[in-house]
Amino acid sequence: MKTNTENNTLTIFLEGRIDTNNAAQTEKDIFAAVGDRKENIVIDAEALEYISSAGLRVLMKLRKTMKAPLPMINVSREIYDILETTGFTELLDVSKALRRLSIEGCEQIAAGGQGKVYRVDDETIVKVFCNGGNIPLSYVREELDNAKAAFVAGVPTAISFDTVKCGEYYGIVYEMIDSKTLSKAITDEPQNIEMYAEKYAAFIKGFQAIHVPDGKFKQSRDIYNSKIEALKSWITEEELAVMHEIADSIPLTDTLIHGDPHSGNIMIRDGELMFIDMTEVCYGPAILDIGAIFRDLISAAQNTPEACEQSMGISAQLSAQLGQLFFAKYSGISDPAQLGEYLKAAGLASAFNIGANIGAYALVNEMARKKMPGVVERLIRGVIIPNNDALKYLLSAK
Fold this sequence. Notes:
It is a single chain. This protein folds into three domains: about 1-95, 2-Layer Sandwich (Transcription Regulator spoIIAA), CATH 3.30.750.24; about 105-175, Phosphorylase Kinase, domain 1; about 180-395, Aminoglycoside phosphotransferase (APH), C-terminal lobe (Aminoglycoside 3'-phosphotransferase, Chain: A, domain 2, Alpha-Beta Complex). The longest helix is centred in the C-terminal third of the chain and has 27 residues, at about 335-360. The chain is α/β, with parallel strands linked by helices. It has 15 helices and 16 strands. About 50% of the residues lie in helices and about 20% in strands. A hairpin with a 2-residue loop joins strand 14 (about 265-270) and strand 15 (about 270-275). Strands 6-10-11-9-8-7 form a six-stranded mixed sheet.
């Protein structure tokens, strides 16, 4: 038996066989490692080959000492059958071992902020979360859960299958969509950008009209408040309170927003648009998606043009042009002066989006940490806080 403690969680790695010959010693070893802990304990069964009733009773004793269900992860099919037959899948929080999928020799067909996408065969692709270090399994499973819930709710999106392990990284297997991203279509056919902008605007409006009343997704208010907490190392308590006040103005709703609805996250299949990358789907007001689109198509084109090509697969010039056309089609405003005012509101929502997210990003990215002082002065203190009343009105307006 091996153990590891990380982020206040004790992981116990069980190996080989646990039966009447070694169950008593295994019990002593486990409780010596656990000590006075009543929570934050995980059993990793990846190397466990067999467990008898004597071994199961050890797990039962450990479960009785805990405040919450005992997680048992990386359980093989053979061990899972034993647990299910004996009823232990009802007593423990059991997770089966992930299927291992090799991407050696597979064609890379896309890349983004979180990782890379590979063609596995003619019918499936795998999104490998290989950017930004080891992205945790909980984050990957959240995208899978969102993707499945969104598909069932009628959101135009790819069919998702399962979570897998690709080398040291996690991945999600999706159906192969033999089509282009919206970014690629515009890059290949710049003369049709207005037509694509019209489709884009109609698609976003249709998505934002979907009602999912059974609470399958998180509320954007809660998500933003959680992310804002990461700013407390960079701003004053008073400034942090103002940021939370703004987030608290976000209404509770049963309509969906995508969270990252840029043109690189939209595929065109048989002339119809559909979303990929469902990590940030949640309940929320449409203005939050509008702010995200402004952030990616207009702000990024002006301030970080290289990010357009890298993250969205479109040049800064085409991105800015698409942004202007999208907002005109989406808002229905043709007068340039009125459209300018609308873009100011979208830009303010974009500023709040970036300001709320940057602290969480800085927790895992060294470059973001270096930029934090400048971002705080320019964006949070220079734009968001002076306009907090306008933001609260903007976010709460129907």
